[in-house]
């Protein structure tokens, strides 16, 4: 009897489950994913995400690291840990220990306390990266990775991602271009005279296809981030990005990354379980931004309502707007920017949708980057129409209550002037007068030589189409771009006369670079794959770009321009030792140019070398200028 009773007691004890009171915690993410010792700012805020961690005790036992505060927020699945890392701290593995007491029922009436502990390893690493200087000496090449070259077809699509498709026959879907494809063509950039690569976003965009117009479209452009700490697998992932940057640096090329602070993709992991409601800019009903910069820059007559819609309205419904006034959001974005420079070794940033961000926050990010990486190149996209608006968003010489610290704008105003000038006949205020007038306002900027200049990009009609597929006009615009002030960038394919308008969508100006896929019938990466006209355009850009590399007059010299007359625009780039003369004609007939009025810059020189033809000009008193021509002269004594 006693044996049978003991048997049933054992059976009952085994089969009766312990009842747990209090949820067992778990850790699923820590962002940043690692950090660096020796940062000038010793503060770090870790985002820790997991189930039921809000009431955990947190300890960090690592020499040189102090846990200053554990921040609990609305969502119990988040903790934000404020750390101080002393300058003497050594690299190594720092353990984050979370512990929590939960009650477990053992039997019908007996309860016991059980301590659950989680140890989360976190790496502190030594700093090794030093971004290279990017300035007016550089020539930037803009690449949309998905459309440039497919180096690894095995990563074109993944069944476990929100968008599982890749189809080159469909202009709206992913096409398979990747980071290895870019790496495979580094010699092409070197040949062209490029010094720096700017890639449209490479960060994970695990977005579903969205209905835009009458078609479903992929987020191949990259502007809807879903995890800042991962490079998209379809581009090759983090390791492929590191390899590309290392290989580019080994070739003497620099890399700019596209930053997006204003919004994230609708499929971002944080949005699936928000830390707090005001992580996003919230509205009673959906509110889109007005896309108008005037309510922000109008400090005299503006109103708060329009300002609020412009700054805090969402860019589009599937790109939720981040609330950068929220300190946790601000830290999350700022630290990711610092981590990216140190983790991947990029050399600069191009900030997307700059004018839609909270501007004090942007000043804070720029200051933080420059504190850790002095003179790092940061340029912002402000698609504005006026010189005043463009200057407002950067370091300027205007007496304003708000002062931006952004070093460089994407110079949309000059880009519009170039395209408009070439579409018009020369006249009062038109044609080349637009270039002259735009540059005449450069005193508004603290340093217009840092303005990133261009003729087209991934959001605009292709330059060659805009100017009517006229090769002479093409040369005038590109010649100007490469010899005027600023940091010029070229959109992929423009060197090969790629054309199209944004009709019916942006996909039309984002065509695949021919030769970037193994089954392409034409290869534009080599001269034999280009037409005679395309080779003429390519060689024109190549000639000036490579000359520009070694011309201090063009890259760092002063610009002196003369009022355009009779369809001819003349300007000089000059240092103490060197002078370059640029003559641009949009006259439909040959002209004889009397150079007496240029004595201020031409005096003391007796001859010149024509850089485009290698011919020597022995008499500078008057020059024969062909119709619709670009002339680049290196003056000689």
TrEMBL record:
Pfam families of this UniProt entry?
Alpha-amylase (PF00128), Cyc-maltodext_C (PF10438), Cyc-maltodext_N (PF09087)
GO BP term, example: carbohydrate metabolic process
**Could you tell me the keywords of this UniProt record?**
Glycosidase, Hydrolase, Signal
Limits of the Glycosyl hydrolase family 13 catalytic domain: 142-548
Which GO MF terms are attached to this record?
Answer: hydrolase activity, acting on glycosyl bonds
Q: Which InterPro entries match?
A: Cyc-maltodext_N (IPR015171), Cyclo-malto-dextrinase_C (IPR019492), GH (IPR017853), GH13_cat_dom (IPR006047), Glyco_hydro_b (IPR013780), Ig-like_fold (IPR013783), Ig_E-set (IPR014756)
Q: Does the keyword Zinc-finger apply?
A: no
Does the keyword Signal feature in the UniProt annotation?
yes
Q: Which residues form the signal peptide?
A: 1-22
UniProt-recorded name of the protein: Glycosidase
| Gene source species | Arcicella aurantiaca
């Amino acid at each position: 009897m006693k044996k049978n009773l003991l048997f049933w007691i054992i059976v009952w004890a085994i089969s009766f489950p312990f009842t747990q009171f209090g949820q067992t915690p778990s850790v699923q993410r820590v962002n940043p994913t690692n950090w660096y010792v020796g940062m000038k700012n010793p503060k770090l805020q870790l985002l820790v995400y997991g189930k039921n961690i809000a009431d955990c005790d947190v300890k960090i036992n690592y020499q040189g690291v102090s846990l200053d505060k554990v921040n609990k927020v609305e969502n119990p699945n988040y903790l934000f840990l404020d750390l101080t890392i002393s300058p003497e701290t050594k690299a190594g593995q720092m353990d984050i220990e979370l512990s929590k007491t939960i009650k477990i029922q053992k039997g019908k009436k007996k309860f016991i306390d059980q301590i659950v502990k989680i140890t989360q390893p976190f790496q502190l690493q030594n700093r090794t990266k030093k971004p290279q200087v990017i300035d007016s000496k550089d020539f930037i090449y803009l690449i949309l990775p998905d459309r440039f070259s497919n180096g690894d077809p095995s990563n074109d699509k993944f069944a476990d991602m929100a968008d599982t498709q890749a189809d080159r026959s469909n202009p709206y879907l992913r096409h398979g271009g990747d980071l290895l494809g870019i790496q495979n063509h580094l010699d092409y950039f070197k040949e062209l005279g490029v010094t720096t690569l700017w890639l449209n976003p490479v960060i994970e965009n695990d977005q579903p296809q969205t209905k835009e117009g009458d078609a479903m479209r992929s987020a191949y452009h990259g502007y809807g981030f879903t995890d800042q700490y991962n490079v998209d697998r379809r581009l090759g992932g983090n390791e492929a990005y590191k390899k590309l940057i290392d290989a580019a640096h080994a070739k003497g090329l620099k890399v700019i990354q596209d930053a997006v602070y204003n919004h994230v993709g609708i499929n971002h992991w944080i949005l699936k379980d928000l830390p707090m409601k005001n992580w996003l800019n919230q509205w009673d009903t959906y509110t889109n931004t007005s896309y108008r910069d005037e309510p922000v820059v109008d400090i005299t007559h503006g109103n708060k309502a329009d300002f609020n819609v412009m700054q805090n309205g969402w860019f589009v419904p599937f790109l939720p707007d981040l609330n950068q006034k929220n300190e946790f959001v601000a830290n999350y974005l700022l630290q990711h920017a610092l981590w990216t420079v140190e983790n991947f070794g990029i050399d600069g940033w191009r900030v997307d949708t700059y004018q839609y961000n909270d501007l004090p926050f942007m000043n804070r990010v720029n200051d933080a980057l420059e504190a850790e990486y002095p003179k790092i190149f940061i340029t912002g996209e402000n698609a504005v129409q006026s010189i005043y608006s463009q200057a407002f968003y950067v370091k300027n010489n205007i007496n304003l209550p708000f002062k931006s610290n952004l070093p460089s704008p994407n110079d949309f105003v000059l880009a519009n002037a170039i395209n408009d000038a070439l579409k018009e006949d020369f006249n009062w205020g038109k044609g080349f007068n637009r270039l002259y007038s735009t540059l005449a306002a450069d005193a508004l900027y603290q340093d217009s030589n840092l303005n990133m200049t261009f003729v087209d990009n991934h959001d605009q009609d292709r330059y060659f189409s805009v100017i009517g597929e006229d090769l002479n006009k093409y040369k005038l615009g590109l010649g100007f771009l490469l010899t005027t002030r600023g940091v010029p960038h070229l959109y992929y394919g423009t060197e090969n006369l790629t054309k199209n308008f944004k009709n019916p969508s942006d996909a039309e100006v984002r065509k695949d670079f021919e030769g970037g896929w193994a089954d392409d019938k034409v290869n534009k990466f080599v001269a034999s794959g280009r037409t005679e006209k395309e080779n003429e355009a390519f060689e024109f850009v190549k000639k000036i770009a490579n000359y520009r590399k070694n011309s201090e007059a063009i890259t760092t010299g002063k610009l002196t321009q003369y009022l355009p007359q009779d369809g001819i625009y003349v300007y000089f780039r000059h240092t103490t030792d060197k002078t370059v003369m640029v003559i641009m004609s949009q006259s439909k007939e040959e002209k004889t140019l009397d150079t007496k009025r240029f004595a201020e810059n031409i005096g003391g020189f007796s001859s010149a070398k024509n850089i485009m033809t290698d011919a020597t000009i022995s008499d500078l008193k008057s020059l024969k200028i062909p119709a619709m021509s670009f002339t680049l002269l290196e003056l000689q004594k």
